[in-house]
Amino acid sequence: MSAPYSQIKAMLAISKGSLKAIFRSPSAVVFSIAFPLIFILVFGFIGGSGKISVSVALSPQADTLNPLYKALSQVPGLKWVKKSPEKTKEDLEKGRITAVIDIRKPVEVGGPYQIKLTSSDAVNPQNLQVIQSILSAMITGINQQMNPTAKSFAVVSKEVQQIPGRVYRTIDFILPGQLGFSLLSAGVFGVAFLFFNLRQQLVLKRFYATPIQRPYIVLGETLSRVVFQMVTAIIIIGIGHFAFQFTLVNGWITFANIMVLSFVALILFMGFGFIVSSVAKNESAIPPFANLITMPQFLLAGTFFSIDAFPSWLQPLCKVLPLTHFNTAMRNISFEGASLADCLPELGIMGLWIVGVYAVAFKTFKWE
After folding, report:
1. Does any domain span residue 32?
2. Residue 96 shares a structural domain with residue 200
3. How far apart are CA 262 and CA 320, in angstroms?
4. What is the Cα–Cα distance from 275 to 205, expressed in whole angstroms?
């Protein structure tokens, strides 16, 4: 008596064949591995341990009724962060804030204001020097306006209080965006072209002649794409960590959390690919549809620079995009040591996107 037909074995056979085809495809390797690695190499070599922006906070005890504070608040190069003392200290330790500025009233009548800076080891020294230069320039300007011959209006302490902190490198911002770029590109373009060609070349129709059921056909092809992209993620993270000191706070635990997050994101992005493969009437129509989904996310989701750099009216749109929440969650996991449980808001929004995207995908998917 012959053994019963195994749907699982048939699905794995499809996955194996499809995976071989992916690795033999130059475009798949270039867009999924080579292209993101080019960005990582460029920013890894030129970025060093540079900060993304110069942010400062004001000490709770600081005097704000003096002309120096009013002048500093108008400097476009300084971004003032207003948080609780606990959050401010946490941001300072992680290098998100360059310094906390404390402006104290003169000890004696007619004396200068005393200015002290608190920074951390996580801060780029060049950014700290920028703040010191701005303070010196502001004080010089006030002195000239008040009385050039009088004593200095304020004095900046030469001793900067340093607190321990984790170094925040440019690669810690760039790599999550590039991994998201790779996953989104593969999920949309890879799946769209794959299933469109399988449909056009009547491969799916030939599968119908075999005992394998339709869901296993899709799962087999999907599994190969997932395996390939997980390998890609390992390569990107490995090169970033060992070559450019990309931060993995808790080692293998952080790495495992990133892989789970990448898997969830890939499932979501592949849903977009299923939709594109179904709505495109011909192969030349796939890139426009795919770019309509991917380009706004590449540009607005914090892939290359923080969404804080965008106008305030555009930021709500940025925060709706699923890639934004992947980038945010991955940066929190890799640098801050957050767990997946800590990223539930981001995972929840991605989950809502998965439900919505696959509802449309199931409605539009075509077999022939």
Report:
1. yes
2. no
3. 18
4. 19
The whole-angstrom separation of Cα 305 and Cα 225 is: 28
| pLDDT at residue 3, as a whole number | 67
Question: Is residue 19 a contact partner of residue 227, using CB atoms and an 8 Å limit?
Answer: yes
Find out whether 171 and 335 touch, Cβ atoms under 8 Å: no
The continuous run of DSSP H or E covering 200 comes out as: helix 191-200
Same-domain status, 198 and 300: yes
Residue with tokens 């590449």, as numbered in its chain: 298
Give the Å distances, CA to CA, from 233 to 70, 175, 224, 327, 347.
47, 10, 14, 14, 19
**Cβ pair 23, 224 in contact under 8 A:** no
Q: Are residues 189 and 72 in the same domain?
A: no
Q: Which pTM does this prediction carry?
A: 0.70
Q: How far apart are CA 69 and CA 115, in angstroms?
A: 11
**The last residue of a domain, from among 148, 163, 178:** 163
pLDDT at 19 over 70: yes
Q: Which amino acid makes up residue 186?
A: A
Here the tokens at position 292 are 């309509």
pLDDT tens per residue across span 285-294:
888 888 888 8
The total number of structural domains in the chain stands at 2
Question: At which of 112, 140, 163 does a domain end?
Answer: 163
Report CA torsion sign: 287, 289, 292, 293: negative
Is residue 1 one of the residues assigned to a domain?
Answer: no
Q: Which domain holds residue 187?
A: 7-47+169-364
